[in-house]
Amino acid sequence: MPKKEMPAGALVLLILRVLHSGPVHGYAIAQKIYMLSAEVLHVEEGSLYPALQKILLKGWATSEWGLSETNRKVRFYSLTPAGRQQLETELADYSRVAEAIQSVLKTA
């Protein structure tokens, strides 16, 4: 089955939601999104790490170095209070847009 494109603007929302569960390293974030989306949404490194950098710069997450399950040195990302607030904002915006799209699809 061909890879599906990530909907525009969805990556930051998905990363924030994954981080809501606790500290996670980058590769694990991509894997979790892939698994939770029933193996539909692929997050490439070229998209993931710039999005994580944006999230860090905005103060929505922090990072610290640690060891992965395979004893590799990796950065673990954690949601900040500002990140939790942004997640709520992003979820509300997503819901509003999804409802509007469904309305058009049902009535057009």
UniProtKB/TrEMBL annotation:
Pfam families: PadR. It comes from the Bacteria. Gene3D superfamilies: Winged helix-like DNA-binding domain superfamily/Winged helix DNA-binding domain. InterPro entries: Metal_resp_DNA-bind_regulator, Tscrpt_reg_PadR_acidobac-type, Tscrpt_reg_PadR_N, WH-like_DNA-bd_sf, WH_DNA-bd_sf. Residues 15-88 form the Transcription regulator PadR N-terminal domain. NCBIfam families: padR_acidobact. This is PadR family transcriptional regulator. It comes from Paludibaculum fermentans. The lineage of its organism: Bacteria, Pseudomonadati, Acidobacteriota, Terriglobia, Bryobacterales.
